[in-house]
Model the fold of this input.
Amino acid sequence: MLEVDRIDACYGEFQVLKKVSLSVEEGEMKIVLGPNGHGKSTLLKTICGLIKPTAGAIRFKGRDITRLPSEKIVEMGVTYIAEDRELFPEMTVLENLKMGGYNRRARPRRARNLEYVFDLFPKLAGMKKRFASNLSGGEARMLAIARGLMSDAAFLAIDEPSLGLAPILRLEVLNKIKEIHRTGIGILLVESNIPQLVDIADRIYLMEEGELVFDGSRDEALNNPDIKEAFLGV
Amino acid sequence: MGREFIEVLISGITNGSVYAVMAVGMALVYGVTKVFNFAYGSFYSMGGYFAWVVFGAKLGYPLVFVVVIPLLFLAGWLTEQLMIKPLRQRADWEMMAVMVTLGLALFLDNFYQAVFGPFVKSLPLLVEGDITAGGIVIAVQDITIFLVAFGIMIGFMLFLGKNTLGMAVRAVAQNMTGAQIVGVAKDRIFALTFAISAVLVGTAGILLAPKYFVSPFGGWVILVKAWVITAFGGMGSIKGSLYAAFILGIVEALVGWQLGFTWTMFAWFAVLLVTLIIRPQGLFGTWG
Done:
């Protein structure tokens, strides 16, 4: 469904991604682990068109989306859920969600998708009229994920969903992602810690200095000495 | 004094309503595209000159609005697409945008002078006649100006508040990355806000043309006025500009009445300075 083919990406002179290749099929969940500042977010932003790669190609459902503007990519069903949430602070929870369904394909299905996300996040249903700037960290994270789902995406790029959350909230967010995964959406998720999601991951990658240095199944990953050392401290 | 005071107050509110239209346009462009548009006043004059040309063709005011508004929209759209958009790739684009819009202002004003001559053009009254109520005389034109300006503001607020495209405009203003993530085509929103702001200030130009004439360099006073209003209200805050426009419209009328109109800009700057000393972000501004 999504194919990343040897992409490079740069910030000015500095090359962040080096020949990164991976693919995510329908209903798959793949996880990219790696320390902060090694290109994980850049990879997701490049897939979603917020950053343009300097080399390589990205294909979605067989179509080359490498040079498409971000709004076209969203319309095709590829949605980024940002680590910084990137909500609209002076809009209410409901308005933020409506904006999530802004793209032309999702717009006619707004009512149905609203029902779905309020079902998934009952807490948000109770604070529809609250401004996004008045939400707690956990609530803002839930809203960011819910807003992403409003786009009617077939593929979600989720950036550090548990970052900065208290352990109990982290578990709640990860359980929601498991629920979303069960609906058949393809997911590429990046984390700097091994999340409780590894047990359902179809594949795990390790990214270091802009390169994928490891690629394997859950068991291979957990037995890999590099990963063990970096994430489990052994 | 009582009657005269009320007449002055009414004139202040009338001008304030037009100031609101033009200040909101400036706040919109600054808030959404982060461009300080130095050619803003020249779009005000453009409205006046377009109206004057259309009047030469002997059309009435309703038709003037119908013909001129799409032209203003197009002028604003093209300005953004042809002059601002190519700059956005550059790191120093904000400074470049200031220089480019300043150049556009000088070009347009000199163009007006070359084509229409250095002397002012006058336009007929919007509506003739006066209403007298309890000894207070109000020009029907003033009532009309107020109602049209008020109607434009209501329409604009409904657009921003309820319309899907209007919400996208607010989204870009509040979080550009967030807007891109949900699939807003930000380049189109930039062009749209420029177009809307040209319509707003150009319409203000039509509304005030029968009272204050149209002149090639008249836009500069308007640019300064719009800037003082938006700075007083809080840069980029539409609500702030709205309040600020009415407050300064009334200040202008009262100062003009008591001290003479040479003192009005002085009074505006005094109000602005005092406000900025106490609240540097303006009435409703927020930092960042």
